[in-house]
Amino acid sequence: MSRIINYVQFPDISNADEDGLLAMGGDLEVDTLVSAYAQGIFPWYSEGQPILWWSPNPRMVLYPSEVKLSRSLKRTLRKSNMTVSCNRCFEQVISACALRGQAPTFDNDPEATWITQEMNAAYIDLHKLGYAHSIEVWQNEVLVGGLYGLALGSAFFGESMFSRVSDASKVALVSLCNALAAQKYTLIDCQVASDHLFTLGAVEIPRDLFLDQIKGSDINQAKLNFADQFERYCANSVINNL
After folding, report:
1. How much is the average pLDDT of 130-153?
2. Distance set, CA 30 to CA 12, 117, 139, 159, 195 (Å)
3. Quick one: residue 116, left, alpha or beta (phi over 0 = left, psi -120 to 50 = alpha)?
4. 21: left (phi over 0), alpha (psi -120 to 50) or beta
5. Which terminal residue of the chain has fewer beta carbons within 10 Å of its beta carbon, N or C?
6. In this structure, are residues 10 and 23 in contact, taking their beta carbons and an 8 Å threshold?
């Protein structure tokens, strides 16, 4: 169930250093997190550090209607018997993502986790209120991949994804793109560049352009019907229609 967000104003983005670090400290309360994303800012820090807030320049984004599906990926998917769902097991997805990645990127390649217990709990709270959502990929009824992030206004802010079998996270992302494109979402925020996301059609844009494209997000409009809309506009079409 959603509630009115008490807007938290962050320092001006122009104060970020060359790596995108803007501020440190604060908390991971719902009001703080939702306000941060609406201002183009996200948290990323390791256990034992203060909370660090980032707004890198340039920003990597993926425009949903421009996602690329390679021939090799199509061939893999035709033989994979994968299916996709939305918000079926958010907590399992974020726990799986927590086993991966230390870099502040939606791609999450490296080893140690940056999703601390505090972060885990905070995003579960966001999910319960209709802000955070997961896409799950299944193979023979086993969870093999997925992603999670926030939906605000016409933007989806990707946080992390994982694969237990080859290409499962790509299936999740392409499925999300299909659903978002059908609903006229503007972009998926991928945070910082990765080779993996470049191959799927993601691009880097100036931070000012990114901020302009997410401007006007109504932070009090949680996407309570996000899963229903995903099923309506995507379901398993990314796989079945190859």
Report:
1. 96
2. 20, 15, 33, 16, 32
3. beta
4. beta
5. N
6. yes
Structural contact between residues 178 and 232, judged by C-beta atoms closer than 8 angstroms: no
Distance of alpha carbon 61 from alpha carbon 185, whole angstroms: 12
Task: Name residue 139's amino acid.
Answer: Q
Task: Give me the residue label for tokens 């994982």.
Answer: 162
Q: Which of 57-71, 206-220, 225-239 has the lowest mean pLDDT?
A: 225-239
Q: Per-residue pLDDT tens for 39-66?
A: 999 999 988 899 999 999 999 999 999 9
CB 224 within 8 A of CB 159: no
Structure tokens at 175: 């499925």
Cite the DSSP H helix spans in the chain. 30-38, 71-78, 90-97, 117-128, 168-182, 195-199, 207-214, 226-233, 237-240
Instruction: Please provide the size of the chain in residues.
Output: 242
Side-chain half-sphere of 88: how many Cα atoms within 13 Å?
Answer: 16
- Report whether 146 contacts 170 (CB < 8 A): no
Burial of 140-165, coded b for 16+ CB within 10 Å and e otherwise, reads eeebbbbbbbbbbbbbbbbbbbbbee
What is the value of pTM for the model shown?
0.92
Name the token pair of 39: 């201002």
Largest CA distance in the chain: 49
Q: Which of 2-11, 55-64, 93-102 has the lowest mean pLDDT?
A: 93-102
Kindly state the tokens that stand for 75.
């061939």
Tokens, residue 146: 């997925």
